[in-house]
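Board notes, transcribed. Complex of a protein with beta-D-fucopyranose.
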Amino acid sequence: MRAPLTFPSDFVFGAATSAYQVEGHLENDWSSWERDGKLHDPRARNGRACEHWARFADDISLLTGLGASSYRLSLEWARLEPKRGQWDDAAFNGYRQRLEALRDAGIRPLVTLHHFTHPSWFHEETPWHERGCLDVWRAYVQRCEELLRGLDAAVVSINEPMVFLLAGYIAGAFPPGRKSPQEAFSALENLVRAHVIAKELLAPRELGIAQNMLVFAADRPWHPVDQALSRLVHDTYNHAFFEALTTGTLVATLPGVVRGKRFIDGAQDSMSFVGMNYYSRAHLRFVTQAPFVEYHFRDPKRRGLTDLKWEYYPEGFGQLLRQLTRYDKPVWVTENGLDDRAGTRRVRFLYDHWKELLQARAEGVPVQAYFHWSLMDNFEWLEGWGPRFGLYHVDFATLARTPTPAVAYFKKVATERVLVEPG
Ligand code: FCB
C-alpha cells in the first residue's frame, strides 16, 4: 500500500524545547554539574542559554511562523521551588503569563513536568531511588496543577525516563552521577509512581510520558549474544515503561545490570497518549565487562551520519510506530529531529520521517501529533553548544533567531496538509 500524502485536518503539528536548554539564567543540578566539569567540554556553560524566558513573547512568532498549533515546553522545577518547600511566586506567575500568551496566539501547550533537570537540593535530600522523592514530587505536581488550572494544556509527566536512568544511575554521566543498578531499579519504580501521582492530580487532562525509542540491531548480525541482547534491550528500553503504564506491571531485564518485576498500584491504564521521541538506530555488541554492552551508531546505508554521529534512519521511525498499536491509545510523536549544523538536511529529514509517519497511519497506527525537536538551536546537555537541532538557527553571540530552510517547508506542509517531496 502506498502512503497517502495527506495529513488529516485535526493532525497536530508542533515543535518542542525544554526549559533548561533554552530559558537561560537557571541554577539547578545541571548547572552545578557543568561547574564540576562533567560535560564533554568541561568549560561549556548553559549560562543565558537562548534567553527564551526573556524573549518568550517574541518567540511565539517562531511557532506561528511554522504554522504550528501546539508547543511542547517544560517547566523548570528549580525555578518554581529553588529551596525545598519555598515556592517562587514570580516564577509561577511568569509561567502562567507565558502559557496564557500561547493560548492567546492559538497555540496549545504540551507541558513537560520533568525534563532531566532538578532543583539543586533534590538529589541530596530526596533522590529518585528513595521514597521521599514522591512527597516532594507530589507537592511540585500540585503546584503545576494550580498553574495549569483553567488552561487547555496537555501534559508529559516525565521525559525519557530510561535515558535519565541509564545516564544518571548506570553510566554516571548525568546528575546524580550514580553507577548503581540496584538504585536504578528503585528509581525506575519511583518514576513510574511519579507518573501515577501526576495522573491522580491532573486527570482528566491528557497525560503521557515522552519515551525515547531506538531501533536496536545486533552489531555482529550473526552473533547470538548480540542478537539476544538487542531483543532484551529493546523490550526494556523501549517498552518497559509503556508496559508498566498499561498493565500496571513493571518488568525490566538487562542481564548483569538490572532485573526486576513489580506491580505498581494505579499504574494500570495511566496514560492517555503514547508519547515517543525518535532519533536513530543503535547497534549493540556484547562485551565481557560490565555493563556488558556497547552501542555504536553505524551507517550501513551510507546516507551520512547526522552531525552528532547518529544514524539517519527514517525506516526505524515507521517500524517503532507500528509497535505502538499494542497500547491502544493515540500516538503522539513528542520529539524527532537531527543535529544539522549546516542547516542543509532538515527539509529532507522531515519529508523522510513524515512519509514513514503517514505510511504507519495508513496501516492503522493512530498517530495524531508530531513535535519537531527543536523549535530553535539550543544547549544540548553533555554536548553543550555544538549541535544544532533547531528549525530556527540561533546565533549564540547575538541570540538572533533566523529561519532555516526547514521552516518554510514545515509551514507549507502544516498548512496545506499535503506531503510534497522537496525539490
Ligand atoms: C532528547 C532529549 C532532548 C534533546 C534531544 C536531542 O533525548 O529529550 O532534550 O536533547 O534528545
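The chain has a mean pLDDT of 97. Residues 18, 21, 159-160, 163, 212, 277, 335, 373, 380-381, 389 surround beta-D-fucopyranose (CB under 6 Å).
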